[in-house]
Amino acid sequence: MVTIDDIRAAATRIRAFVVRTPLLPALWADAERPLWIKPESLQSIGAFKVRGAFNAIGNLDESVRTRGVVAYSSGNHAQAVAYAAAVYGIPAHIVMPKETPAVKVDATRDHGAEVVLCEAGQRERVAAEVVEETGGVLVPPFDHPDIIAGQGTIGLEIAEDMPSVENVLVPVSGGGLASGVGSAVKALCPQARVFGVEPELAADTAEGLEKGRRVDWSIEDRNRTIADGLRSQPSELTFAHLQQVLDGVITVSDSEIRDAVRELALKAHLVSEPSGAVALAAYRQGRTPPGRTVMVLSGGNIEPRALIDILG
Questions:
Q1: Which of 118, 138, 158 is the endpoint of a domain?
Q2: Are 296 and 161 in contact (CB under 8 A)?
Q3: CB 246 within 8 A of CB 151
Q4: How would you classify the pairing of strands 35-39 and 193-199?
Q5: Predicted local distance difference test score (pLDDT) of residue 10
Q6: Which domain range does residue 235 map to?
Q7: For residues 198 and 177, what is the distance between their CA atoms, to the nearest angstrom?
Q8: What is the pTM of this model?
Q9: Collapsed DSSP state (helix, strand, coil) of residue 109
Q10: What is the DSSP string of 35-90?
Q11: Is 204:216 a contact under the CB 8 Å cutoff?
């Protein structure tokens, strides 16, 4: 299990490469539930994934790292690994589903990575083939302690900037972000409650935690949600963390997600992709207890036409 010492070590390792994002007060929020936004959309690649990527790649032995890296991702992890590889001057091969928004595919290629497109549900199999062909090191999107620790630096920053935080809302997909943030917050602010948030149309984590075991939803079911970055399922490693650090999971509808994207744009002047806005959608349901609340806006990589449609 990832510890607070692992997360602190990650913070030191990635400090030169990531933005320490601020906590922005949402002055229009409910008085009894004051809200602050942690805008990871302000990272260099537009999402939190850059933290885990730099920690994982930076923690590789140099003789191993020079062989290059391989990743599979629907978008933001792809961009993060491509960017980190470019900074370290090593090759990167990224496997992405064909349905990935073009803005994320193009951004990954812009960082110099070789993109391999695959059919839905085939990312891991194709990535294994690319590892065999290239000799590169696999950097998974969430199923690795270094990835969890890197994402956990968000929770470390929240705890340092607001020790009195009472509620933290964080998106859940593969579980690396929620595992890391929850681990840091629980270690440093034990009074705080941490809630995962996921789409109703991809609510495998909520069902799994209720049943006490991981459950499998088909890729066809999970692909129904507008939140394309929240279509993965937890691994054994992340699920074990989520069982320990989450006080609950809140599910939100696609309609609520769209409303949250709009609210962030018009009220906070922040561009959010649907996956990044789920925490605000959960806050708007009013199901969290009163108290000082921080929401993680996990990313802002949205197709322009999709944003126009939501705002229109």
A1: 138
A2: no
A3: no
A4: unpaired
A5: 98
A6: 4-48+144-311
A7: 12
A8: 0.94
A9: helix
A10: EEEEEGGGSTTSBTHHHHHHHHHHTS-HHHHTT-EEEE-SSHHHHHHHHHHHHHT-
A11: yes
Residue 163 in tokens: 């020790």
Q: Which of 74, 235, 275, 298 is catalytic?
A: 298
pLDDT of res. 216: 94
Marked catalytic residue, from 38, 49, 104, 186: 49
Which residues sit opposite 115 in a β-bridge? 94
Burial (CB < 10 A; 0-12, 13-18, 19+), residue 133, is: exposed
- Annotated catalytic residue 49: yes
Interior CA angle at 115 toward 118 and 170, to 5°?
80
> What DSSP letter does each residue of 181-226 carry, written as one string?
HHHHHHHH-TT-EEEEEEEGGG-HHHHHHHHTS-----HHHHTTSS
> pLDDT for 203-215, tens place per residue?
999 999 999 999 9
- The verdict on 109 and 70 lying in the same domain is yes
Question: 91 and 64 share a domain?
Answer: yes
Please identify which residue in the block is written with the tokens 């590169």.
136
Question: How much is the pLDDT for 12?
Answer: 98
